[in-house]
């Protein structure tokens, strides 16, 4: 049942390229000793990820404990790519926050998101998977 | 800039329906005090999520601390849906693990994944977002 090589590791450059080509991922963070996860729109700025958020659990969580993880992925019928990273989150203020206005950070949803958060990456890995989904060919659509 | 109602909350039934219609999500878990995230193939069984994993960080993490979070999503050019949940993970053994062979749990990647993990959901929410991506219409493809 095993393929010779169904999984390929991405280089760090390939991971950054992948992140730069996408704008939607999932942030995992601590909140009061629990692990939480939420979808986010992000943009790559140098070696950081930037996103905006409103007051709420996401902001409270990263303020209380800045240890975070993040994942972005993409898949087709034959291949899936996933980049996961860990890092530390900090809220940006003043000039640093204003500078984000010049980045192509494009929230998909038109709700007010005032606080700018930056994730500094400490470790990152990416994998590309050759998919085996024989049932996909059996679908009615 | 704000829409009247860009975000719609899903009911619990709608969340379960969404999870049942998908098979790929992201698991967030604790590992040695850190938060980690990883993509997983899953299947819904009653009010639990089931996935398989090999020995490794994912299994070690949920064994040491069973507090986990999970997210699944889907998006088109005009709409995104995301279901997030929190719960507790446990490894299944014996008859319970064997019973999973009868579930439509279909790993996308043909690597060996021997251990069966079940997530019992403690809280869940789902949201559907009306997307505003004017730049999508400016893309060359």
- Which pair of chains has the greatest number of interface residues, and how are they split between the two chains? A-B, 41 and 41 residues
SS field, number of helical segments of chain A: 3
Largest sheet of chain A: 8 strands, antiparallel
- Radius of gyration of chain A in whole Å, from Cα? 17 Å
Name the CATH superfamily classification of chain A: Electron Transport, Fmn-binding Protein, Chain A
CATH topology of chain A: Pnp Oxidase, Chain A
Show unreliable segments of chain A.
Answer: none
CATH architecture of chain A: Roll
Mean of pLDDT of chain A: 88
Q: Quick summary of this structure?
A:
By secondary structure, chain A is of the alpha+beta class.
Task: List key phrases describing it.
homodimer; 141 residues; alpha+beta; Pnp Oxidase, Chain A; eight-stranded antiparallel sheet; 3 helices; 8 strands; globular
